[in-house]
Each structure stands twice: as C-alpha cells, then as structure tokens.
C-alpha cells in the first residue's frame, strides 16, 4: 500500500480498522479472561439450575397439608439423605438446596405454621421451586463469539461450569513518550513541561483491552528510539511526539530507516494531522507489528488515538465496532475549509479550550464530535466518538 499525504479522515479511520486481523485464540483462566473477547461461543456445560432447587427458605412438601416434618436439607446437602417424600411429608429446606424426590412444592417459612410436629399452610403445585434447566440446558449457546468478557460473563461462565475461556489474545502494547522537554513530576520549570500523555494513555489503553507492557520516556535521540522499537515485544508500539518536520522530530527518519510500510501518513484532521500508522516486521510470526505515531500536542494525540489506535486495537482484540453515536449538536461549530475537525463535546454542547495543546475541554467532555469540512449548523447531527471517562 502506498502512503497518502493528508488522507481524508474517514479513510484514515477505515484504513486503521482494516489494517490488522484478530490475534490468535488462547485459553485463559476466568480471572485472566477479563476484558478479552470470546473467540468461541460459551455453551452450557450443565443444565442451570443443575437440579430442581428450592427458591425460598421454608419447607419442601408433598401433596396437600397438613404435613409431618421428616428432616432438613441445606444448600449442598445430598437430597437422597431424606429419601422420597410421600403425600403428607415435609422437609425443612434452605434456598438453593436440592429438592427431595417426591416434593410437589415449597412452602415459604413466613407462610407456614408449625404446631407440635405438624406443618400447616397453603402451597401451590410447583410453587417456589426453581426447576432444573429453567435458565439453560446443557449444550445451549449462552454467549456468542465476539462478546467482551465483563464481570457478569465471568460469573455466568463459572455458573455454567467453566474454569477457562477461549478468547482472542489481547494486543501487547508499548508506549514510547518522546521529548527532552518533558518532566515526570512537579510544576513546569526552566522551559520544560510535564508529560501529559503517559498519564492519559496508560488508563485509556487498559480500558481498550490492551495488554499494556510498559510506558517508557525517551529523549529526542533517534538511535535510542530505533533500539526501543526494534527490541520491543509489543504488537503495537505507540509513540508520542516527533511526528512533524522539526530538527528533533525523528519519526519519519526512523520509519525510513526501518523500511516501514506507511499505511497512513498524515490525515486531513484538526487537531492531529501529522499522525502516522505504519507496519513493521513483528514479534509474532506472520502478524507483523504496528507503529502508531501520535503527534505531541496532547489533544492532537487524542485525535490520533481515536482515528488510528482505537479502531486498530478493536480489530486486533476481536472487539466489534460499536454503533456510531449521533448527536444533534446544539450550537454551530466552525469547520476547517478542507479538513475534518474533532471537537470535545459534553452531551450536545461543544466545549471551549479545545486547542491542540489543551486538555481542559476534553477533561469534562463525554465525546469528540466529528465536524466535517465546512462545519456544523446549530441542530445538525454529527457522529460523536467516545472518549475515555
Ligand atoms: N513547520 C511545521 N510545524 C508544525 C506543524 C507543521 O505542519 N509544520 N504541525 C504542527 C502540529 S499541527 C502538531 S500537532 C505538532 C506535532 O508535533 P510533533 O508530533 O512533532 O510533536 P513535538 O514537536 O514533539 O511536540 C509538539 C508539542 O507537544 C508538546 N508535547 C510533546 N509531548 C508531550 C507530552 N507527552 N505531554 C505534553 N506535551 C507534549 C511539546 O512540548 C510541543 O509543545 O507540530 C506542529 N508543528
Ligand atoms: O495536530 Mo496539530 O494542531 O493539528 O495539533
């Protein structure tokens, strides 16, 4: 594929989506499967409930009352211990206990009266019993491939009998934050400023399902940058800064030296136009490695994340594309004559402090509106990209 200078923004995003393919399927314990995507459907390994169960604390009874009390069953007990109930028999039972054979219903404790050794109350046939297989039968499809493993998925998989799940491996990501001027602590001083991107990208990449291996600070040193990229074990290397044509902007020389294939080299978007997506020989056979070069201006870097990194990581980790969110933007937004603009919004309101070097608008935003060349009229609909919350 040849490089395109200042590719239209929708084409850049489409190219990032199409650049990779899902990583191999791997087996992970339930704990470690969190935030991965199912590579295979989850089918039930058991009926759920696996046996007829009492839904309430009370009495398992057989036939019409009154009943003779014959014993007690707690959750986890072997129901055979009380044998088969005959009409007129009752067994004290706890929620979740296996129903004894012959039981026709459960009488809740608050509706029961015990007099001597006799039990009185009204109970419906089958009342307060959770029948075996009510939620699923063994072999039923519970969740399709492509489902993100959230805490409820983990719980359901455990209930259905799984110790491990087959999931798409998570992309290993390494971040290289470039710039001699950056400080890691304290206020800006002596012409130097704080690194805003390490702290911004670290939690964001985790929520995107990336296996974030490390975030490294590098100075403006081409040889060190080259060593870092060549020795990285990541599937995706993300750099920040150095994308423009300044004296210490090393990204383009680096990619030339490495013989990288430039998939996106400059995008018609404000902020963020110098962003780059490149393909390099990689750590896994056949798959290659991606390098996303984000511009150094912080909001321009966020624009690069939304345009290139988010679609690429979704694809590699097997996540489906979410349905685009479209919002009627309440106020007119000035457009760029040729380029797309990405503008922080809260609900339907465009926000101030949206310059390329600013994060003040984004920090209170719930999205970035995609403003086409020429701008938006008040009340016009626009796609709004989700931003990290
Ligand atoms: N002659 C031109 N100069 C520039 C152009 C251009 O088209 N022609 N484009 C401008 C645009 S737009 C952007 S965006 C930047 C892109 O710059 P780089 O990717 O090369 O980034 P740097 O020069 O390293 O830094 C730019 C700016 O951002 C600050 N920065 C960098 N990293 C961080 C960080 N981790 N946290 C906070 N701030 C950071 C850096 O100090 C600079 O102020 O180029 C323009 N120039
Ligand atoms: O990418 Mo720059 O201004 O467009 O920040």
Sum up the structure in keywords.
389 residues; alpha/beta; Molybdenum Cofactor Biosythetic Enzyme, Chain A; Molybdopterin biosynthesis moeA protein, domain 3; 4 domains; 12-stranded mixed beta sheet; 6-stranded mixed beta sheet; 27 strands; binds ligand LQZAQKY5; binds molybdate ion
Task: Describe the secondary-structure layout.
Layout: E1 5-8, H1 9-19, E2 25-29, H2 30-33, E3 37-38, E4 42-43, E5 53-54, E6 58-61, E7 67-73, E8 89-93, E9 105-108, E10 113-115, E11 118-120, E12 129-130, E13 141-143, H3 151-159, E14 164-168, E15 172-178, E16 182-183, E17 193-194, H4 197-207, E18 211-218, H5 222-231, E19 236-240, H6 251-258, E20 261-270, E21 276-280, E22 289-294, H7 298-316, E23 325-328, E24 340-346, E25 349-350, E26 367-371, E27 381-386
Parallel strand pairs: 1-20, 7-8, 15-18, 15-19, 16-17, 19-22, 20-24
Antiparallel strand pairs: 2-14, 3-14, 4-13, 5-12, 6-8, 6-9, 7-11, 10-11, 20-21, 21-22, 23-27, 24-25, 24-26, 26-27
Structural notes for this entry:
- The protein is built from 7 helices and 27 strands.
- With 389 residues, it is of the alpha/beta class.
- Strands 1, 15, 18, 19, 20, 21, 22, 23, 24, 25, 26 and 27 form a 12-stranded mixed sheet that branches.
- Helix 1 runs parallel beside helix 7.
- The chain is elongated.
- The structure holds ligand LQZAQKY5 and molybdate ion.
- Molybdate ion binds next to loops.
- Ligand LQZAQKY5 binds next to helix 7.
- InterPro entries: MoaB/Mog-like_dom_sf, MoaB/Mog_dom, MoeA-like, MoeA_C_domain_IV_sf, MoeA_linker/N, MoeA_linker/N_sf.
């Amino acid at each position: 594929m040849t490089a395109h200078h200042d590719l239209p923004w929708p084409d850049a995003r489409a190219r990032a989506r199409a650049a990779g393919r899902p990583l191999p399927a791997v087996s992970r314990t339930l704990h470690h499967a969190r935030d991965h995507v199912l590579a295979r459907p989850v089918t039930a390994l058991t009926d759920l409930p696996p046996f007829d169960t009492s839904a309430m604390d009370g009495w398992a009874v057989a036939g019409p009352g009154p009943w003779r009390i014959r014993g007690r069953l707690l959750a986890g007990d072997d129901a055979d211990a009380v044998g088969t109930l005959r009409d007129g028999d009752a067994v004290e039972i706890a929620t979740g206990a296996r129903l004894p054979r012959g039981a026709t219903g459960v009488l809740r404790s608050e509706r029961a009266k015990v007099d001597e050794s006799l039990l009185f109350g009204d109970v419906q046939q089958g009342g307060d019993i959770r029948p075996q297989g009510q939620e699923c039968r063994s072999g039923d499809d519970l969740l399709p491939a492509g489902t993100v493993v959230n805490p409820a998925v983990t719980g359901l998989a455990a209930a259905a009998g799984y110790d491990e799940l087959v999931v798409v491996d998570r992309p290993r990501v390494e971040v290289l934050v470039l710039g001699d001027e950056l400080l890691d602590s304290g206020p800006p001083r002596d012409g130097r400023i704080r690194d805003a991107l390490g702290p911004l990208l670290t939690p964001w990449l985790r929520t995107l399902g990336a296996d974030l291996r490390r975030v490294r600070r590098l100075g403006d040193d081409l040889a060190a940058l080259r060593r870092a990229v060549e020795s990285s074990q990541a599937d995706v290397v993300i750099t920040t800064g150095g994308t423009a044509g300044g004296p210490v902007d090393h990204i383009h020389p680096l990619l030339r030296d490495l013989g990288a294939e430039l998939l996106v080299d400059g995008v018609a978007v404000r902020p963020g136009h110098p962003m780059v997506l490149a393909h390099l020989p990689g750590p896994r056979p056949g798959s290659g490695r991606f390098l996303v070069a984000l511009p150094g201006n912080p909001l321009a870097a966020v624009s690069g994340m939304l345009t290139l990194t988010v679609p690429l990581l979704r694809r590699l980790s097997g996540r489906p594309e979410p349905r685009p969110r479209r919002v009627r933007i309440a106020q007119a937004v000035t457009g760029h004559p040729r380029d797309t603009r990405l503008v922080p919004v809260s609900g339907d309101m465009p926000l101030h402090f949206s310059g390329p070097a600013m994060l003040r608008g984004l920090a209170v935003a719930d999205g970035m509106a995609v403003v086409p060349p020429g701008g938006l009229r008040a009340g016009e609909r626009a796609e709004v990209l989700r931003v990290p919350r």
